[in-house]
Each structure stands twice: as structure tokens, then as C-alpha cells.
Amino acid sequence: MYTRSSKQDSDSDKKPKLSYWSKSKCRCPVCQRDFAKEEMLTGSGRMNAGELTDELHRNYIPSEKYGAVYPLIYAVGACPRCHLAFFWKDFEEITDKPSIEALRDDDERRKKMVSTIFPHYELSRERNLLDGAAMYYLALLSYEKVDVGYAPTFKRAMISLRLAWLCNHLNETIPGYNYDYIAHVFYQKANFFYEQTILNETNRVETFAGVNNFGPDMDKNYGYDGMIYLIGLLEFKYGQTEDMPLRYKKLDEDKRAIARIFGLGKSSKAKPGPLLENARNLYDKISDLLKEANTIDFGDDDDEE
Fold first, then answer.
1. Distances from the Cα of 222 to the Cα of 205, 218, 219, 229, 279, angstroms
2. CB environment 215-245: b (16+ within 10 A), e (fewer)
3. Of 132, 117, 140, which Cα lies nearest the Cα of 73?
4. Position with higher pLDDT, 140 vs 263
5. H-helix segments, 89-150
6. What's the whole-model pTM score?
């Protein structure tokens, strides 16, 4: 069973604490070992909420005592032995034999892929920003192997988006390591997985009916409408640009879906205000882009000859 060393205890006592080790251990369903669960402390000025971005990501203002704080990194856990990573509750809920066997067979690939992007990460210490990002990437790879009954596509969408945010924070903290480029890749993955989530639900391949919190961040649940908004936003900001007619077609579909958010929002006080404001801004931006696109000749008539 994993326990912290006395050196770790000594080092952690020298600085203001952001987290603590829970008395209850987490059991890895793959290797059947217990490991320590790290949770973030709240209060005492640790979390000074800043702006909400158009991606529905809450930034936090660094304090003189605690420095920069990233609550997101504590939402996932990772087994130090086999490098399995999940949202905490899924360590108890994902227990079916095919998923466990697939995860067990994939441990070396997970370690290798994550080490390539987040070198020198550790899973046994009080986590820093790089460790947290590495755990999210381990989780992205882990959910790839689990049964569709656990809504893995939606979880991979949320994880990819959060990974993009964390990589942007890494780029701000340690510039020059291409984390801005890596963030862009994860944004595109998030776009793909969110779209696939809706497609899977529509085709009854995989349901997200069991999902209680759509996030995408931890401070507020923006629900299904938030996911529809994000699909349009991610396509607008990070979608492919090689096939422009296809891009404009997808954006037009996203604009129509966003318009339905307005219709619901005007008649429902329960609809989150920030979502409506951001959705309206996105709707206007997409509309302006599509109007401009209508003036462009893509040469379709010649191709249909």
C-alpha cells in the first residue's frame, strides 16, 4: 500500500497547504492496490474566483500566500502502480471484467504516451500543475478502454477540454515547451468527442443519461445546453480549415442549435445567465462569418459538370 515518505511530510509542512491526504484510501480496480487520495482544501483565501471565459472555464486569481491555484487538477485520481486514472467516483463504479482486462493490458502504453508530453510527472506526491495535466491525460487514455455503459465518450470530451485549459496554464507558467500547440490539439479532440457524444446518443450507441454534471468546469453545471454551446464554440475557434465548405456547413448547423438555446432561455429563469450571454455572442459571430462566406465562390458549379 502506498504511503508518503517522511521527507514529503517535512517538505509539505514548510509551505501553505493547498491539499490534504484523505483518511480513506482509494482502491485501484485494476491492480487491486490501495493508494492515497489527495483532495483540495478550500477556504482561507485559497480560491479567489476570477473571470469566466467564453469556454466556461473559471480562472482563479493567485494570492500572495498560496500563489496560483488550479482546482481542476484534484478532480481526477491516478494509481501510482498501474497509472490507471479516472474521476474519483469511477474507481468504485467501473468494475466489469472486460473493461478491467483492457485497462490492465494497456498500462505500458499509457505510461509511455503520457511521459512523452508531460515528462517527469509523479503520481505519489502532492500534485503540481504538470502532474495534474498528466493525470488528466492518463484518464483520457483510460476511458478509451472502458465499456460504453459508463459514458466514456462524454468523459473524454470533458477531459480533453480541461486538458486544453491546463496546457494553456502550463504554457503561461513554463513557456517555450509547446504546450500552446498541445492545448490546440486537445481543443480539437474535445470538439470531436463532444460531437461524437451527441451522435452516439442520437444513434442509441452510447447514452449520457447517467451523467449528473456536464461541467465543463467544476464551479457550475451548464447541462446539456452548455454542451451544445461548446460544440459550436469549439468548431468556431478550433475547427478544421482545410475543407471550408464543410466548415461552413457545420457552423450553420451549430448556429441553428444555438438558436434553440435562446428560445428556451427566454422562457426559463433556470437557464444560466452566462451561458445565454455567451451563446448569443457566439451566434452573432457565426452569423457574421457565414454572411461573409456567402460572398465566396468555392467553384462548386465547375466540379458538378
1. 24, 10, 10, 10, 12
2. bbbeebebbebbbbbbbbbbbbebbeeeeee
3. 132
4. 140
5. 90-93, 97-105, 107-117, 129-143
6. 0.90
